[in-house]
Structure formats: C-alpha cells, structure tokens
Design a protein that fits this description.
By secondary structure, the protein is α+β, with helices and mostly antiparallel strands. The chain has 11 helices and 22 strands. Strand 7 and strand 8 form a beta hairpin. The protein is globular, with a radius of gyration of 22 Å.
C-alpha cells in the first residue's frame, strides 16, 4: 500500500498560511491535544486499546485528535450512482475529509466483475490522494432487513472478504428478502443475517483481515429493521456490528423547489408496508432535524439500546449517489453492455444543466468525527469501535471534547464511548469543550451553535422484550444556552451518582427549529422536529450529536 501522508492540517511541514480557517482551527485543536508532529506519526499499525484500564475507580483516557470521515459513498461501481473515484476523492478533499469508505451496492455484476476492478481503482485513489484514508466497502442488503456498511482494513484479504461475504450472505443476491411477521422464510432470513455478522467476526479472529466493521444504514427509512433484529446483529458480534447511521444521507432531498412538494430530508418518504415492523408508529418514517427517528427521539430506540449498558455508535454520512444541483449525468452504455455483465457504469459526462439528485458531496454537509491518537486506517477503525465519535451537520462545530470525571480526581476523566466507575453518591462533573465554527460553511453560512442539551438515561441491563424501543428513564436533564459564544469554551455540568448506573450523551443545534420531542416536552422540551413536506432546507436546521459516556455505579463499599 502507498505510504500515507498526514493530512495537511496535521503536517508540521505545511505552513499555516497554506491552510484555510478550518484547517488552522483543527491544527490548534491538535496542538492542544498534544498530538502534533511526531506524536501523531503516520502509519496503519494497530492503535492500542485506548480506554482506561479502569483499575479501581475513576479513569483517565488519552488526549485525542478527531479525524473527519464518511462511511457511505458510492461510485460508478454501484448500479444507481454516477461518479468516478477521482471525482468523489477530490470533493472529499475539498470539504476536509480525512477518511472515507466506498461502499458499493451488492449486485451480481459487482460481485463477479466490479469489486476487483474497483479494488484496482482504490489502490490508484490511495496513491493519488495520500493525505486521505480510503477504504473499500460494501453496502450489504441484510437478509430480512435494510442495508449495512461493511468495510475492512486495507490488506491482502480486503477485496476477497467482501466478495465472499457478498455471495454467501447478501439478502438480495440470495433471495432472502422476506421479513414480514409470520412469513415462512422470515426466521431463516433473520438467522442468516446473524450468521453473516458472526462470519465476519471469525475472519477478523483468524487474521484473514486485520479488521472489519459493520454499521446499519438508514435504519428507519422503510421500518424493516425491527428492534429485535438490531439487537440480534449487535449481540452476534458487538466488536463488529458497532452501530447505525444516526442520520441518513440524501440531506438535500427536500430543498424547497428542488424535487417535489412531498419531499423529506433523507428521502424518508415511505409508508409502512407488509415488510415493516408493526410496532413502529407512522411518525418513525420521518426525519427530525435531518436525523433518523431512532436517534432523534430522546427515550427512543437508540436510548433503549444504550439503557442496556452497551455501546451502540451513531454516525452520519453523505450516501452520495447524485449531488444536488450537479450537472453530470451517467454516460451511455456501449452496445451489449450493462451493469450485470460489466460491474461498472460508464463514466459520467457533463451536461452544464442541473441533474436530479438528493445528496451532498462527502464532507459537504454531514461529518462523522472519530477520536484517535495516531493517524492510520486501523486507528480510525479502533476509534469507531471504541465509540469515540461525535457528528454534525452543516459544519456546525469545529471541535468537541467530552470528559466525565470524579470531582476527587485530577486526571482528564473518561471520554465518549468510555466507562467511568464511581461509588454511589459520589460527585462527578461533565466537561464539554466546544470549539465554534471558524469559517463559513459550503453554503456560505457561518454556523452558530445556540444550545447544548445533556441527555441522561438509567442503565438497567438487558431488556426482557427484545422489541422494546423505549427507555422511559431517559430525558434531557440540562440545557445550556450558548448563543453568541465564540472560540473555545468549556461547559462544566455537575452530575451525581445515585442508586443506578447511567449514561450521558450530548446534542446541540443552531436553534432554528425546535419543538417538544416525540415522547413529550417532559422528556425533551426543545428537540428536533419534522419539517413540512418539500420545505426542508438542511442548512437552516443543523444539529450535532455525541456518543454516550457510561457511568457504572457501585455501592459505597464496592
């Protein structure tokens, strides 16, 4: 594999004068974290386990640099996309991405032809873009359910793993799509999805690939990912199946006057079908502030999984197929060729006229930030697995650092995805360090963060009913008005350890669209709300979310 260079903002040989305002801001954050220059040495060696060993009480996690990425990008090797690798990589570089995953749709043309050709282009793209980490992945059609991102660390087995997996476990290719309640094949299909995740875990365990991860894509778009299925995938191999898209791509779908008067952000424009899980309300098929209902509902499905005391990461991404207002169209097929017998679309051609599309370029609107202590492919995967993740839309923030620590400790405390062990009744503090946006976003707007919400939920252990989608003890417990604050500042929020273990997570917004949350104002007094059909300007309704920090409470003598 071509030697990897540090991103320009992380490379001390690049003059600050050569960086834009956001690059300068990121460099300052990196210096503050003590990870500049040699301390953030390039390489793809495995990042050691970074969470505190948790000997006794408290804990002290390392300082982190956050790499910005997108795990859901398509190219000419997906049957319904249109861009070349170079087009996507150039756009990602323009919008500041450090890492990205090309996860092409499963398809016989892809499995038989496209994946290997794609791998050759991946190698070329890595050489052409040495300051980016470019993964090869697959968008898996889960048996009986929706889609997932599957991607592996670069290495000799990465493309073979994906094609073997595609042919053996893809629901569309196998005809294992039935998932309705009571149907003859549903139990078999759901079981095959679990076997698929277990198979991936075995390939990692045996060293066939260095690492592999799975994330559920747009989970509530069709309502066919039931709560018990999501728990089954997670429990099959929690080190592999690590989470879900908290917000889907297609965020430009409802720009006023663009697609139609019925358009919804994320293309969440579906109604329940026979394949949908009957326990979801009709409102679950909408996005809230651009986020999936499963994530956006305080006390909802995501919280019900976190309340079991197990990490389940959320992400956001572009799902880029066709960019809004772009002027390129798919090229014409030569006689006798199609996707099934080539595995690759013809390269696009420019028309100089805007073409249909719902997406933004990678990094243009949706960003997933992953905390690492060094630069490299496996470091990004380790950060995702550890849950050191926060996400934003519209470049709402330049930086976010979250720590929870006991008041009697002098260290840095525990960060996102981590666990802090405390005694019952002990005083602890949540530290939220925000770095505000330092430049106009790609829409020409200087984002303004106006509020930060602290969401807290009790941890009760595994649920009895695996189709539970509510966490009745989770709610917004603090809201901080940060209107007008600039630069870097730290919020200090006192917490206390009661009788139960718990978790805290963060959310914040530009303050433009608020309302009572789906489960009521007593749970979430000013959360994200759906937009009117056809009137969903994404730049005017932006949010950030963070992964949780868990606090494990033991008795006074524990």
């Amino acid at each position: 594999m071509t030697e990897q260079q540090l991103p320009a903002w992380a490379d001390p040989s690049v003059s600050p004068a050569a960086l834009d305002a956001q690059g300068v801001s990121r460099r300052q954050l990196m210096r503050h974290a003590g990870l500049f220059g040699a301390a953030f040495a390039l390489g793809s060696v495995a990042t050691p386990a970074l969470a505190s060993a948790q000997r006794g009480f408290g804990g002290d996690d390392p300082r982190l640099a956050y790499l910005v990425g997108d795990h859901h990008v398509h190219s000419v090797y997906s049957h319904d996309a249109k861009y070349t690798f170079s087009q996507q990589a150039r756009a990602a570089a323009r919008y500041g991405l450090d890492w990205m995953v090309f996860n092409e749709h499963s398809n016989f043309g892809h499995a038989n032809y496209g994946a290997k050709m794609e791998h050759a282009e991946i190698i070329k793209a890595r050489a052409e873009n040495p300051r980016q980490l470019i993964f090869q992945g697959l968008e898996w059609y889960i048996p009986a359910a929706e889609h997932c991102t599957v991607f592996a660390a670069p290495g000799p087995g990465e493309v073979d793993l994906l094609t073997r997996f595609e042919l053996a476990y893809d629901g569309k290719l196998l005809g294992y799509t039935e998932g309705s309640a009571g149907a003859t094949d549903t139990a078999r299909n759901e079981a095959h999805a679990v076997k698929a995740v277990q198979w991936l875990a075995e390939q990692r365990r045996t060293g066939y690939v260095d690492d592999v991860l799975v994330l559920a894509n747009h989970p509530l778009r069709l309502g066919i990912d039931s709560p018990h299925e999501m728990r089954n995938w997670r429990d099959a191999a929690p080190e592999i199946m690590i989470g879900m898209e908290g917000a889907p791509g297609a965020q430009g779908a409802a720009i006023p006057g663009w697609r139609s008067s019925t358009s919804i952000r994320g293309e969440y424009e579906n109604k329940p079908s026979a394949q949908s899980w009957a326990g979801y309300p009709a409102d679950a098929y909408l996005t809230y502030g651009g986020f999936d209902w499963a994530t956006a509902t305080v006390g909802g499905l995501w919280d019900s999984m976190l309340a079991e005391g197990r990490l389940f990461t959320v992400t956001t991404n572009s799902d880029n197929h066709r960019t809004v207002f772009d002027t390129w169209k798919n090229g014409d097929w030569p006689a006798g060729q199609n996707f099934d017998n080539t595995g690759k679309l013809p390269d696009p051609v420019n028309t100089d006229t805007p073409q249909p599309g719902s997406d933004f370029w990678p990094g243009e609107f949706s960003r997933t930030h992953v905390g690492v202590t060094r630069y490299g492919y496996r470091a990004v995967m380790a950060g995702l697995r550890a849950g050191r993740v926060w996400l934003d839309h519209g470049h709402l923030l330049d930086g976010l650092d979250v720590r929870v620590k006991r008041d009697c400790d002098a260290g840095r405390g525990v960060t996102l995805g981590g666990r802090l062990r405390v005694r019952k009744g002990e005083k602890i503090t949540l530290y939220v360090t925000v770095t505000t946006a330092s430049r106009a976003n790609p829409q020409g707007i200087l984002p303004q963060l106006t509020q930060v919400d602290v969401i807290r939920g009790a941890v009760r252990g595994p649920v009895g009913d695996r189709d539970t989608w509510q966490a009745p003890d989770t709610k917004v417990v603090h809201t901080k008005d940060v209107s007008g604050r600039k630069g870097t500042y730290t919020l200090r929020i006192p917490l206390s350890a009661g009788d139960e273990s718990f978790y805290v997570r963060l959310r914040g917004s530009d303050g433009n669209r608020h309302g009572a949350g789906y489960l009521g104002a007593a749970v979430d007094p000013h959360g994200p709300i759906p937009h009117e059909p056809g009137n969903g300007d994404p730049w005017a309704d932006t949010w950030f979310y963070s992964n949780p920090v868990f606090v494990d409470v033991v008795g006074a003598g524990g």
